[in-house]
Amino acid sequence: MTDSQLIREIKDGNVQLYDELMRRYERKILAFIFHMLKSAQMESMAEDLCNETFYKAYRSLHSFREVEATFSTWLYTIARNTVLSELRKNKNMKVSLEESGYQPQTSHETLPEQTVLRNEKVSLVRDAINNLPEKQRSALILREYDQLDYQEIANILGQTVSSVKSLLFRARASVKLQLEPYFLEPIFEEYEGMNRR
């Protein structure tokens, strides 16, 4: 059953099918909310805000019109607005990328030093993303982590597609600039060493 079919059934009174819609999106919405709460150190609220998102979506399902957006886009928008509202209440507007529980997979042959370096690189990337302005951060999370297309991101953020592309360009450039000192220094040192030989 597609999302559209489920929504029609739910609107017609078959409300127990809402559980199926929740199952389809719960993990992604929870991860997205967790990302947004990370820099404010409010990750513990992610599950509550996820539940609140699904509750708000259920209460407003009668007003959802597929012509305007897909269900997932509409749901991400509700999630984002719920988080931003909570952050405003806590007077902490720095919204960020979450650590989604991802741990780099290592093979048995990997040296402990390589594992430490890989974990450090992952941490540096997360910190760089957390330092982005809220809209750039949200756009980058939705594109790179949730794999949404430009139009969906534009709908969620209330922007045009060209604005989303601009946000992503600036976000990627900023992350690259923040990370250059960590990833380029050893290369320059090696290069200078070769020139002295």
UniProtKB/TrEMBL annotation:
> In this protein, which residues make up the domain named RNA polymerase sigma-70 region?
21-91
One Pfam family it belongs to: Sigma70_r2
**Has UniProt tagged this entry with the keyword Ribosomal protein?**
no
Annotated CDD domains: Sigma70_r4
Keywords (alphabetical) are: DNA-binding, Sigma factor, Transcription, Transcription regulation
Q: Which residues form the RNA polymerase sigma factor 70 region 4 type domain?
A: 125-173
Q: Which InterPro entries match?
A: RNA_pol_sigma-70-like, RNA_pol_sigma-70_dom, RNA_pol_sigma70_r2, RNA_pol_sigma70_r4_t2, RNA_pol_sigma_r2, RNA_pol_sigma_r3/r4-like, WH-like_DNA-bd_sf
The answer on whether this UniProt entry bears the keyword tRNA processing reads: no
Write down the Gene3D superfamilies for this protein, in alphabetical order.
Answer: 1.10.1740.10, Winged helix-like DNA-binding domain superfamily/Winged helix DNA-binding domain (1.10.10.10)
Q: Which family does it belong to?
A: Belongs to the sigma-70 factor family. ECF subfamily.
**What name is this protein filed under?**
Sigma-70 family RNA polymerase sigma factor
